[in-house]
Design brief:
Elements (H helix, E strand, L loop, with lengths): L2 H9 L8 E3 L3 H10 L3 E3 L5 E3 L12 E5 L13 E4 H15 L4 E8 L7 E7 L2 H10 L13 E7 L6 H4 L6 E5 L4 E5 L5 H14 L6 E9 L5 E5 L6 H5 L5 E4 L2 E4 L4 E3 L3 E5 L9 H7 L5 E3 L21 E5 L11 E2 L2 E8 L9 E4 L1 H10 L1 E4 L11 E4 L12 H15 L2 E6 L2 E2 L7 E2 L2 H12 L8 E3 L6 E3 L22 H21 L13
Parallel strand pairs: 1-6, 3-17, 4-5, 4-9, 7-8, 8-10, 12-20, 20-24
Antiparallel strand pairs: 2-3, 6-7, 9-10, 11-12, 11-13, 11-14, 14-15, 15-19, 16-18, 17-18, 21-24, 22-23, 25-26, 27-28
Helix pairs in contact: 2-4, 9-10
Length: 526
């Protein structure tokens, strides 16, 4: 270890440390994790780990420090404040907790475009979390501009916060100091907190540079036509962007600058529950490789993953480098998107499987951010529940939704992308009665939207929501064509009408709350 590293750690309050491992490679991190009894190898060499009690994000335990440098730009309606004095008190306790401990330091980069990248350092006492960070963030590259912002994660999964002293709700705390670009992750082993905390920092950093930060996946075809896919966890961002006929840019976090789009990350973090090679071959192959990290999956006695077993959680996860996807785009940057896709898992089962939105409808739908929160993504969620998550990522927005919606509107106006709303949720009835939208149908509709053939189709106006819906989709299996009219898939048409009107009313109510014209999300006759 270099003296520069030791001095750098001392400068952030980390002193009297035990053994320090710096930028260790994947093989050694796997070996060190196994040696400490922190995981088990699967039959194909992935590392299977358990995150203990926390098998999802602890959304109610995430705080933004209220401090002079950032408080005027923070969306306090949705972010829980932590007094700066409490933050520093907690930080001091955490750095004292590190003393004498063996630690792993990962130096990485968030953002493929060096003009907007953030140099990231993750400090953790856990080798498998170091492997996760090394996988999910990008390898640092030379050429970042002088004074480029820094992001620091102090990760202490076994530290126990004291609510009475630290001002926290529980013994778990994820605290972000925006001006210092610093994150404390304490009391949870769920690795997604590391990933999403840096994303939250980027969601504060990028808009200040005029870059639209997006909770989305992205891919591009051989002709350079790129697409972005907005959506919350479980709506299909990872699945639909891993298309064998297109090049994957990234599966979850991107920026859209004046030059085009770029990935924030260097890896993917996909849901594993019910994973099948027949429907998701790229993801299947990626997690069947050495040094992929599998969280909370169940293994049989031979080390084979039981992907349908949700006994630990519905939110089983797999982390793997982008390079594990055969058709990934190494530079992780592309031009301005031709298509913007908004994914929603509609538990009501009333939204069409694909709709075309006007730019005004797109901004409204983006701010409303309708989906059904799927089981397991957050603690306590055991079945789909209707949720409105502004900009399809409210938990990760430090600034008000109007900031991000304004950037979306600017990009659409300037570059003319077509916006599509795709329902990957239910059809034939609501959750519990209907069934999930067939992925083959979704892929066919998406393919037609992305290659431009759907633009030439005949459209009708949905009588409830006012969106344009194709009457037919070129290349779609005729047996699936009936899905385009969701009302026809329901046995009880009156019940469909009731449910559709209920959802339209919820759209209008949420739009009003968010300062959006409610009429944009309802048909004129509704």
């Amino acid at each position: 270890m270099s003296e520069n590293l030791r001095d750098g750690l001392a400068a952030i309050g980390l002193v009297n440390l035990g053994t320090i491992h710096h930028d260790v490679g994947p093989a050694a991190l796997v070996e060190q994790s196994l040696a400490q009894g922190l995981g088990r190898l699967t039959d194909y060499g992935a590392l299977s780990v358990s995150t203990g009690v926390h098998t999802g994000r602890s959304a109610k335990d995430k705080y933004i420090v209220k401090e002079p440098g950032s408080e005027d730009r923070v969306w306090w309606d949705a972010n829980v404040p932590l007094p700066e004095a409490k933050y520093f008190g907690l930080r001091d306790k955490l750095t004292a907790w590190y003393q004498g401990r063996e630690i792993w330091v990962v130096d990485a980069q968030a953002g493929a475009d060096p003009e907007y990248a953030m140099r990231v350092r993750v400090v953790t006492p856990s080798p498998w979390h170091a492997l996760f960070a090394r996988t999910l963030f990008r390898a640092p590259v030379a050429g970042l501009p002088a004074g480029a912002p820094q992001g620091l994660v102090l990760h202490a999964p076994n530290f126990v916060a004291d609510p009475a002293e630290d001002g926290t709700r529980t013994s778990t705390a994820i605290a972000l100091h925006l001006s210092r670009r610093e994150v404390l992750v304490a009391g949870t082993e769920y690795a997604g907190e590391i990933k999403k905390s840096i994303f939250t920092l980027m969601n504060d950093h990028l808009p200040q540079s005029g870059v639209f930060s997006m909770h989305c996946s992205a891919n591009v075809d051989d002709d350079g036509r790129s697409a972005v896919f907005f959506g919350l966890s479980g709506t299909g961002k990872t699945t639909l962007s891993a298309d064998p006929d297109r090049h994957l840019i990234g599966d979850d976090e991107h920026g859209w600058s004046d030059q085009g789009i770029f990935n924030v990350e260097g890896g993917c973090y996909a849901k594993m529950i019910h994973l099948k090679r027949s429907s998701e071959p790229e993801i299947w192959d990626a997690v069947h490789r050495f040094a992929a990290v599998l969280e909370n999956v169940v293994l049989d006695e031979f080390g084979e993953v039981q992907f349908d077993d949700s006994s630990k959680t519905e939110n089983t996860r797999g982390a793997y480098p982008l390079s594990y996807i055969p058709n990934h785009l190494p530079e992780a940057m592309a031009g301005h998107p031709n298509a913007v896709v908004m994914l929603t898992a509609d538990a009501f089962g009333v939204l069409p499987p694909i709709s075309r939105l006007t730019p005004e409808q797109a901004k409204a739908m983006f701010v409303v951010g309708y989906t059904s929160k799927l089981a397991g993504t957050e603690i306590g969620v055991t079945e789909p529940s209707t949720t409105f998550s502004a900009c399809f990522g409210a938990p990760f927005l430090p600034q008000p939704p109007s900031v991000y919606a304004g950037l979306l509107g600017e990009k659409l106006e300037k570059h003319g992308a077509v916006v599509w709303l795709i329902n990957t949720g239910w059809t034939g009835g609501p959750y519990g009665t209907g069934h999930r939208m067939p992925i083959a149908a979704t892929r066919a509709m998406l393919a037609a939207a992305l290659d431009g053939t759907l633009d030439k189709a005949e459209f009708r106006t949905d009588p409830v929501f006012g969106f344009e819906v194709p009457v037919s989709v070129p290349g779609m299996d005729p047996e699936l064509a009936g899905l385009l009219d969701p009302r026809s898939t329901w046995d009880d048409k009156d019940y469909y009408d009731t449910k559709a009107q209920k959802l339209a009313g919820m759209f209008a109510e949420q739009a009003r709350k968010m300062g959006v014209d409610a009429a944009l999300l309802q048909a004129a006759s509704a």
